[in-house]
Amino acid sequence: MEQHTVAQASQYRRELDDGLLLRWSSADDCAGIIQLYSHVFRDAADEPPNLWIASYTRDTMSGRHPLIGPGDFAVVEERATSRIVAATCLLRATWSYAGIPFAVGRPELVASHPDYRNRGLVRALFELIHARSAARGDLLQGITGIPFYYRQFGYEYALDLDGERTLWFDAIPKLKPGTAEPYSLRPITPADLPLVLRLYQHEQATYHSGTPSLVSATLDETYLRWNHDGATQDYSGGYWQTALIVGGDDRPLGYVLTRKLRWAEALNVVGLAVEAGVSLVALMPSLLRLLQAYAHTMPTFKPDAPTPTNVSFGLGRCHPAYAALGEALVPRPPQPYAWYVRVPDLPAFLQLIAPELERRLAGSVLAGHSGDLQLDFYRDGLRLRFAGGRLAEVAPWRPQLWGEPAQAAFPPLVFTQLLFGYRSLAELRHALPDVRAKEEALTLLDALFPAIPSRVMPQD
Length: 460
Fold this sequence. Notes:
The protein has 3 domains: about 15-145, Aminopeptidase; about 165-335, 3-Layer(aba) Sandwich (Aminopeptidase); about 345-450, Nonspecific Lipid-transfer Protein, Chain A (2-Layer Sandwich). The protein has helices at about 30-40, 50-60, 120-135, 195-205, 220-230, 280-295, 320-325, 345-350, 355-360, 415-420, 425-430, 440-450; strands spanning about 15, 20-25, 75-80, 85-95, 100-110, 140-145, 155-160, 165-170, 185, 215, 240-245, 250-260, 265-275, 310-315, 335-340, 370-375, 380-385, 390-395, 410, 435. It contains 12 helices and 20 strands.
């Protein structure tokens, strides 16, 4: 214990080498953190300070943001100059797994000054972040970040992130001469937030061929209100603009979410749903024309932004809008990126989702199954004990010399991909020779952990 407190506590202090101090932030650190971030988050050394990230940092430290406060940044301070040389922060989120909610910690804005890299500062920051996340009951941490880097801190790619399909303006059907546009777009008002929330829930519930996204981010009216009118407009490119799709009788039929700022040639659509009973196919041509018109009038991130040429539907891997758009989409979509996910207490998470695992088992050829399933993760492992189709126990387990063998094995963290439906067992076995399963375990693992697509929208 350091100075009679624990790492998650606001008064925590830890001396590092070379006159550096690891601690939690206060509102007084806002300017120092902005100085670090606006310097680091640039595409080139000769670019000016990043004012966009500075604006977002002010929002997160303002005390008004619904997911983070001014004391939720872990920082490394240079004692001699009081300069912040490394920092990250921790947002709050709630996600659900097959409808079962759980708390999530979201590290973000990870940065260290170039002069202070390769000293283990980010690792020290993540020790604080993980301690606080655990203290408040988060069962998972998720981060969107650069390739490979966060594997160093116990994270694994385990959920789709983004995934987009492009449609060029030239492919949009023209309105017949003398014909009125059958639909229109109306910006939402605060009174529309309950409707927006319901449409978002409907979008998540019908994500994959009419079935739900396995893992979803939970939105509430507080966050929607912040996204609508609470955040500083200088950072509005990080949030979304919500418009209702309105019929000729002024009745809302659905919604479309776009970025508030256009960054390049594309207008980015990040959400789209219609009410049950409304044909997305019939509505789509008019919606595309409305989006094309909006792309030419919406604010841009930079004053010299290029002329818009396309709509980028960033709706994940398998949104129903793609079927409605059909062959007009660019035929070779980019591979979706992925969320990094960390599950520090795997037994606790498996116990949480036990009702869903039991439901899957009951619907399989192994209904009512009893027996143990030993999983070897090479450095450690788990035993899942089933009794009459119920998950009776999840406990740590390790194979012993000449002892009971494992029925399946996964390299460290790879089981996370199976757990979150990101890859099937067959896909993992095909890609990784050290993913192994005995014949008697194949059917059970396939029943418990099928591949199911997810779309988790980041909340910034």
